[in-house]
Specification:
Helix content: 40-55%
Radius of gyration: 21 Å
Number of helices: 16
Strand content: 5-15%
Distance between the termini: 25 Å
Structural class: alpha/beta
Shape: globular
Largest sheet: 8 strands, parallel
Number of strands: 8
Order of helices and strands: HEHEHHHHEHEHEEHEHEHHHHHH
Bound molecules: zinc ion
Length: about 425
């Protein structure tokens, strides 16, 4: 374990920073949504052509968890805002393709739009720009002292000049940029989606103000984010073996994610919560319960004063709706009910998915919100991964200079006292 992690002064500094921003001192959390997510998207035969944000909003309403005062309508990012990160020719090309419903060969090749992966559909530009606007708004609300929950966000693969992995614009990047533009100097991004948060890591590879931690499944698209990939010393990649269970997530959270986040002393955090990390997702084989992920996000949300919680991937409409609805419930202080009201049951029963056969739809997906915990043995590979991740941290790059200096002074002071 590197020295930084058991450095008492360092932990003390992080602790002091956190003591002023406990969740209980925050204003009530806010849910960011928009009607645009009710419109059909991605065409047919696409993994994202399933009910997602709309079923989460409906389920939360059915549970009495989404009063008007808790909901904010996402705004749409302006062309100027989109230019914070995306190349203007790409933004123009997507807008043009969205308006005309057509993309020529050259634009398809250059921007990866109008493909099977990133299809054109009516309103694609507006939808993508709305998710960016929602993530900027989320950062603004987080700076007011609220947890901002934006389940339509988390499109973490988008590149500056092209679409990638079902993502046209990279809204998590914009939440982070909004924090930086507000003057913050230490932001941590944590990605719990089943796939590597490559677009976000790449966006801030040379920005000393941002650290990224991605926990994702080994051997999955986009095949980056190996444990050895530490970026410029400010990235931590936990590429986990298939079938990760709740106990293993707990170990990685407590031994790697939390301490590394604390040593980076973030002023703000952005968390992507892809629902494809759940057991039962058709595009991954992670086996986490929603209970474990709710607890993980709650824990992470205590690690910085300003917190944005985004959605992400997730291709099973039942597990996604239960995860993100329950996550909002937990973040907003509700108890998860054992029995669901009839209206909520009807929403779960009404979901459909081409990727999952009817006989594979589990009874609990239709009748409950919370999974059974999936505790299990912590495999040696997971323990080795934690050790390797910590050993790979370059203290001089990971711990921000502004935090390191007072820590060293504090440590020196402590020595003198002895
Ligand atoms: Zn994913």
């Amino acid at each position: 374990m590197p020295e930084i992690l058991d450095h008492p002064a360092c932990n003390g500094a992080a602790h002091e920073l956190l003591s002023s921003n406990r969740a209980d001192s925050r204003l009530a959390p806010l849910f960011i949504g928009h009607q645009i997510y009710r419109q059909a998207a991605y065409g047919s035969n696409h993994p994202l052509a399933i009910p997602r944000v709309e079923s989460v909003m409906d389920l939360c309403r059915a549970l009495g968890w989404l009063g008007q005062s808790e909901l904010r309508e996402s705004r749409r990012a302006s062309m100027d805002e989109l230019a914070w990160f995306h190349a203007s020719d790409y933004v123009q090309a997507l807008r043009h393709a969205s308006e005309t419903g057509r993309v020529d060969f050259e634009a398809r090749r250059r921007y990866a739009i109008g493909t099977m992966e990133n299809p054109l559909f009516p309103g694609v530009f507006e939808r993508a720009a709305t998710s960016v606007g929602g993530s900027i708004l989320a950062a603004e609300l987080a700076l007011e002292g609220r947890i901002a929950f934006h389940p339509a966000g988390g499109m973490h693969h988008g590149r500056p000049d092209r679409a990638s992995g079902f993502c046209y614009f990279n809204d998590p990047v914009f939440a982070i940029l909004a924090f930086l533009k507000a003057g913050l100097e230490r932001v941590v991004y944590i990605d719990l989606d089943a796939h590597h948060g490559d677009g976000v890591q790449g966006a801030f590879a040379r920005d000393a103000r941002v650290r990224t931690i991605s926990l994702h499944e080994q051997g999955r698209w986009p095949y980056s984010g190996d444990i050895a990939d530490t970026g410029e010393g400010r990235a931590c990649n936990l590429s986990v073996p298939a079938q990760i269970n709740d106990s293993e997530l707990g170990v990685l959270l407590e031994e790697v994610v939390s301490p590394l986040t604390q040593t980076a002393a973030p002023q703000a955090l952005v968390v992507t919560c892809g629902a494809d990390a759940l057991d039962g997702d058709p595009l991954s084989s992670m086996q986490l319960s929603n209970l474990a992920l709710w607890s993980a996000v709650e824990r992470i949300a205590t690690l910085a004063p300003a917190v944005v919680v985004l959605g992400g991937g997730g291709y099973n409409p039942w597990t996604l709706a239960r995860y993100w609805s329950g996550l909002w419930g937990r973040l907003s202080g509700r108890d998860i009910p054992r029995k669901l009201p009839a209206e909520a049951l009807a929403i779960l029963r009404g979901l459909r998915c081409d990727l999952i056969d009817d006989e594979d739809v589990r009874a609990e997906w239709l009748t409950t919100l919370s999974d059974q915990p999936n505790r299990g043995a912590v495999r040696d590979e997971i323990k080795a991964l934690a050790v390797r991740a910590l050993a790979g941290v370059d203290e001089s790059a990971w711990v921000p200079a502004a935090v390191r200096a007072p820590m060293q002074t504090a440590a020196a002071g402590r020595k003198e006292l002895r």
